[in-house]
Amino acid sequence: MTAFLFRDDSYLRSVEAKVVAVTAEGGVVLDRTIFYAASGGQPGDSGRLIKADGGTSEIVDTIHPDGDKTAIVHVMAPGSALPQPGETVTAEIDWERRYRLMRMHTALHLLSVVFAFPVTGGSIGADKGRLDFDMPELPEDIDGLEAQLNALVAGNHAVTSEWISDAEMAANPELIKTMNVKPPMGQGRVRLIRIGEVDLQPCGGTHVRNTSEIGPLKLGKIEKKGKQNRRVSLVFDEVNPAAG
Q1: CATH code, 20
Q2: pTM of the prediction?
Q3: Is residue 243 in some structural domain?
Q4: Which of these, 149, 161, 48, 164, lies nearest to 104 by C-alpha position?
């Protein structure tokens, strides 16, 4: 089992860890990691491993092996010099990419507040994100919804995590916004992400500490993806003078 340090502090950029295994495919398993593994619509982190002799190997992706949510495999670039079990290494994250993913992931939680429809899917990217909604009709005031979204961002809402038991999660199904993806249960507890008094929902991903870190947002395309399903895209409004 790998200790998931990012769950308690998503701002960690490097950590010293011990190699516990190297997979047949050339992936590296550490006893603890700051790297998030692809799941829940959020891609896996990238970065590097630095060996004691200073040698560096690039991490191109991070995954859960065979759906095992208790372990994380760091996928190394082809031809990388792999460390051996028992070695101590420094794992260093691609922080710029990770931070953009954190900002976008938190922004999508706010998008699910503004578009108050059941969520049927989603995807998080460093430059663009999207949520799919069970939304039979398109809301009339899209500009107003975008303004409402940016007001939430600018509201300086604290973003925190907390845990409830599997039994508490089962007793509070209204916390689950996603129709097709259920929170991971079976390990005794479920992680919740709280955004001030604005939102509370189960989520295992990485987030910023305050909504003000997200920056201005723009709604992108709203596409029809079935009889009632509509896909709402979201991008950073980085050309906005208010940004930065």
Answers
A1: 2.40.30.130
A2: 0.92
A3: no
A4: 149
Token code pair at residue 148: 């409402």
User: What pLDDT is stored for residue 244 in this prediction?
Assistant: 35
One domain, residues 127 and 232: yes
Residues with Cβ within 8 Å of 48's Cβ and at least 6 positions away in sequence, in order, are 56, 57, 58, 59, 91, 92, 94
Quick one: 89 and 184 in the same domain? Answer: no
171 burial level (CB within 10 Å; 0-12, 13-18, 19+): exposed
- Burial, 192: exposed, middle or buried (Cβ in 10 Å; 0-12, 13-18, 19+)? buried
Residue position matching structure tokens 């502090």: 9
* Whether residue 87 sits in one domain with residue 170: no
Q: Which structure tokens are listed for 46? A: 């990238």
The tally of domains found in the chain comes to 2
Distance CA 48, CA 127 (A): 22
36-73 residue pLDDT tens: 999 989 999 999 999 999 999 999 999 999 877 888 99
Sequence-distant (6+) residues with CB within 8 A of 150 are: 216, 217
d(CA 206, CA 87): 28
**Domain boundary pick from 66, 93, 120:** 93
Alpha-carbon separation of residue 66 from 2, 22, 77, 171, 240 (angstroms) = 15, 15, 20, 29, 42
Crossing angle between the packed helical segments 95-114 and 142-153, to the nearest 10 degrees? 130
Residue 226 near residue 133, CB atoms below 8 Å: no
Contacts of 132 (CB under 8 A, 6+ apart): 119, 120, 121, 122, 225, 229, 230, 231, 232
Do 138 and 26 belong to one domain? no
Domain that holds residue 139: 98-236
